[in-house]
Design a protein that fits this description.
single chain, mainly alpha, 6 helices, rod-shaped
């Protein structure tokens, strides 16, 4: 009986609880559900506001990266342009190299691509700047790549030309050296220069097949040095022989001159010495006459008559110097 009453009471309580539950919508469970829904709505609302800002922040970062890449590409291009302008056509360049240098000059003279600055905000503006900078990177990289290819072809062409020219020079000197080895036999001061020339000729023969222009030039220079030493030895011997020949000829000339003078002295007879004679010449002296002076009459006085004197004879003058005023030497 009691068990039935208890069961009846429990059933009533359950019915009352359900009735109360239905009449009160704000049950703890519903409150939790409503709170969770409100939180979800708040989160969604926050996301609606925050997500665009996050996206814009990310776009700004990406724009900064693209701006840096564009600046780096343009700086690299500027360096390549400066290097390209140093390539000038050389008289030794072939037609292909000349053509590539023309293309390189055209690229170097072109306008450099511009770099777009990143705007302060706006997703669309940021994306536009990133696209422009991306095109700048592509264009600058393409120009730099084309320049690098042209420079590589130019350097290769010049290198091949340098090797070809160096090999031709070496082969020409090898021929000259070979001829000199044969023609210089017995004409040098000693045989050492010819031996060194033969050694250099063998080394040049080994280096002839090299594709390194510097090795070919080195072998050619060594061979030329050996050739010069042989020629110098030949010249030294010729100069010495010419000097000795001139000295012999001079000695022979002096000997012949001495013999000729000796023969002339032997052929001339000795003449006796004669005392010079002198015959004096005499010239008759010249006479001069001086008439006597007359005496003036004296006063009359007795005078003793005297014997008249003989007229005075002029004294003979000294004989003249014959040939020298009548003086007889």
């Amino acid at each position: 009986m009691e068990d039935k009453l208890d069961d009846s009471f429990d059933e009533d309580d359950r019915l009352v609880a359900e009735t109360v539950k239905r009449s009160n919508p704000f049950t703890p469970h519903r409150i939790k559900m409503l709170a969770a829904a409100a939180s979800a709505v708040a989160v969604i609302a926050g996301l609606c506001v925050a997500v665009p800002r996050v996206i814009e922040f990310r776009e700004a970062k990406a724009c900064d990266v693209s701006h840096g890449e564009a600046m780096a590409a343009v700086r690299t291009l500027e360096k390549n342009v400066a290097a390209a302008k140093t390539y000038k056509v050389s008289p030794t360049d072939g037609p292909d190299v000349r053509k590539d240098i023309g293309k390189l000059s055209a690229l170097a003279s072109g306008r450099l691509p511009s770099v777009e600055a990143c705007p302060a905000g706006g997703t669309a503006a940021l994306k536009s700047a990133m696209s422009a900078n991306s095109r700048t990177v592509d264009k600058a990289s393409s120009i730099s790549s084309d320049m690098a290819s042209l420079v590589a072809r130019i350097d290769k062409g010049r290198g091949e030309k340098a090797v070809s020219d160096a090999r031709l020079v070496l082969e020409d000197r090898m021929k000259s050296a070979s001829d000199l080895v044969a023609s210089s036999k017995g004409k040098t001061e000693d045989d050492k220069p010819r031996t060194n020339l033969q050694t250099a000729l063998k080394a040049a023969e080994k280096a002839k097949g090299s594709k390194d222009a510097s090795k070919l030039k080195s072998a050619s220079e060594n061979l030329q040095n050996a050739i010069d030493k042989v020629n110098a030895s030949i010249s030294a011997r010729k100069s010495r022989e010419d000097r000795e020949r001139r000295e012999r000829e001079e000695e022979e000339r002096k000997s012949q001159e001495a013999a000729r003078q000796q023969e002339e002295q032997s052929a001339v007879p000795v003449q006796p010495q004669q005392t010079p004679t002198y015959t004096p010449q005499y010239q008759a002296p010249r006479h001069s006459y001086t008439p006597p002076r007359r005496q003036a009459p004296q006063p009359s006085a007795p005078q003793t008559p005297t014997t008249p004197a003989n007229p005075s004879q002029p004294a003979p003058s000294a004989p003249a110097n014959p040939g020298n005023n009548g003086v007889i030497m």
